[in-house]
Amino acid sequence: MKWNAPAHLRRFAALALLPLLAVPQSFGWGDVGHRMINRLAAESLPSDVPAFLRSPEAASEIEYLGPEPDRWRSPAEAELSTEQAPDHFIDLEYADMIGTLPRRRYDFIAALTAAEITHPDFARQLEPEHVGFQPYITNEVWERLKAAMRAYRELNSKHEDTKPVEAAILFYAGWLGHYVGDGSMPLHTSRDYNGWVEKDNPNGYTTDHTIHSQFESAFVSANLKPEDVKPLISPVRPVTDEWDAYMAYLRHSNSLVEKVYQLDKQQGFIGAGTPEAKQFTAERLAAGASELRDLIDSAWIESGKPVPQWHDHAPAAAMSAKPMSGE
């Protein structure tokens, strides 16, 4: 039905939509892939984590939460959708223009802002919301998980009720899984996220804006099952430096961007696809499940270590921050 509102209202509505159009709307792996990654990670947790985390009920909760951040990407919650959309990706080609990526989100934003001045030809591409914050949200949610696990340890040691913090741990683990899953999908690490954008395209890769959803959603939903992925999950390998480990994981994903385009050119993701495309996709889903399992395990291990004193490690800004309520 045609809208016959006055012209000035139509213009206002169009302007209101601009923030929603400014950030690419890409959904890593779709509902099926995210659920699969989270479920397989939960089911492969090692015995050193608390028993409640290894229960069937926990696996079901963590699985359900796999697509949770994509449920926040709706026109019904326009501000939330716009604000958190950049957390799902990072264009490493542009991010690397600032050099070594800093570990803190706001330092990254400041570095990108400075780079906009020194690289005026890339000013728009270097805007933080266009580069993306994928490793930053992952690190931040992982630290939330670690903090909740520390609280669990304290309550458990006092023989107090741990049910509320167990619920928090499951939520953080499931939430974390979404971004770890996004990171295993190569196109979430690249400016070529939905069609080859580089002017030099000698191999004739697709420039259509369909490759992203065709690969991660349609192909996965039609062809990938947990039994295809589970045998490919790697042995447990907890990490001590979450940031470095996760950046290595992202860079490996990024190294596979062109492989996605090669498989697409061979019609690998159409219909039943090709055996090579199916194997590749299963490997990427398994990489996400393996990384998530290792990060959950690492959060548990790290939560048992002594907490550093603020004056040893806190940045100057934190030292001068306003006191929390009750201080």
Automatic annotation (TrEMBL):
SUPFAM superfamilies (alphabetical): Phospholipase C/P1 nuclease
InterPro entries tied to this protein: PLipase_C/P1_nuclease_dom_sf, S1/P1nuclease
Keywords from the UniProt entry: Disulfide bond, Endonuclease, Glycoprotein, Hydrolase, Metal-binding, Nuclease
Pfam families referenced in this protein's UniProt entry, alphabetically: S1-P1_nuclease (PF02265)
GO biological process: DNA catabolic process
Example of a GO MF term: metal ion binding
Domain of life: Bacteria
Name the UniProt record assigns to this protein: Nuclease
Source organism per UniProt: Silvibacterium bohemicum
Taxonomic lineage: Bacteria, Pseudomonadati, Acidobacteriota, Terriglobia, Terriglobales
